[in-house]
Amino acid sequence: MTVDCPNSWDKKYQKCIFISQVRTPRVQPSQPPCCIQPQETPFMKITVIGAGNMGAAFVKQLTRAGHQVSVTARDAAKAAQVAAAHAGARAVPVAGAADGADAVVLATGYGDAVDALRSVGDVTGTVVVDITNPLTVDYMGLTIGHDTSAAEEIAKAVPGAEVVKAFNTVFAQVLAEGADFGDGRRVDVFVAGDSERAKHTARVIAESIGFGVVDAGPLKNARYLEPVAGLNIYLGYGAGLGTGIAPVWIRKA
């Protein structure tokens, strides 16, 4: 159906398009945040690319939250194993895996990300949540930075996708066990993107599985977020703090 945007917005954004079968809106990429209105329940059709630790953790949390989850991977048997472990998830072939998805979670290594995203079908206009970090082989450094980022390179390589950086600072173990660290402490997800629709979608996904959300600005700010993830990895593994840690942003009450 179509609905009118508030009169306070420019008239060129007059119409919003909602997909009634899915309980979250899909709007035209050119439309402003006013058009992005959550419906009664923020359930989405989400495709997870990757069946490793992060991919499996996403499938676990997203199915628990009530989303319709598909998982795909180069190793079809591994994808099937992940799906079988979580009621409501289903394993799908790589080709066409993104068809009809409200969002795609890119849960591969950075080196495999572009090929993996291209392999799942036409993602033009599809929200792609990039969780990757451009790590060195020993995980103790980054291969790119300063003037670009993994997220920006993925967006350049697949220009039709609405890429949003999120979840890259969250360990797989934290994602799998949940955002609640006790004593009122909750893990944050930092979200950076140039598409308001994509950022809103990432926010809905994060909040639906219990995480806080910090708006980290445009996609180019992934240049900051990826080094934060690098520091988190160093602290977890290099400094021996373990994987039950996460960076958060706090401010005075």
Number of helices: 7
Q: How is the biggest beta sheet arranged?
A: 8 strands, mixed
Helix fraction by DSSP (H/I, runs of at least 4): 25-40%
Global outline: globular
- The pLDDT mean sits at 88
Strand order of the largest sheet: 5-4-3-6-7-8-11-12
Could you spell the SSE succession in H and E letters?
EEEHEHEEHEHEHEEEHEH
> End-to-end distance, in Å?
42 Å
User: Which consecutive residue ranges, at least 5 long each, have pLDDT under 50?
Assistant: 1-34, 36-41
Radius of gyration: 18 Å
- Which percent band covers the strand fraction? 15-25%
Content-based structural category: alpha/beta
Number of β-strand runs:
12
Description:
The protein has 7 helices and 12 strands. By secondary structure, it is α/β, with parallel strands linked by helices. It has helices spanning 53-64, 76-84, 110-119, 150-157, 172-177, 196-208, 222-238, and strands at 2-4, 15-17, 45-49, 68-72, 89-91, 103-106, 127-130, 162-165, 180-182, 185-186, 188-193, 212-215. The strands form 3 sheets. Strands 5-4-3-6-7-8-11-12 form an 8-stranded mixed β-sheet, with helices on both faces. 30% of the residues lie in helices and 18% in strands. Residues 1-34 and 36-41 have low confidence and may be disordered. The longest helix is centred in the last third of the chain and has 17 residues, at 222-238. The termini are far apart. It is globular and about 45 Å long.
Question: Which secondary structure elements does this structure contain, and how are they paired or packed?
Answer:
Elements: E1 2-4, E2 15-17, E3 45-49, H1 53-64, E4 68-72, H2 76-84, E5 89-91, E6 103-106, H3 110-119, E7 127-130, H4 150-157, E8 162-165, H5 172-177, E9 180-182, E10 185-186, E11 188-193, H6 196-208, E12 212-215, H7 222-238
Parallel strand pairs: 3-4, 3-6, 4-5, 6-7, 7-8, 11-12
Antiparallel strand pairs: 1-2, 8-11, 9-10
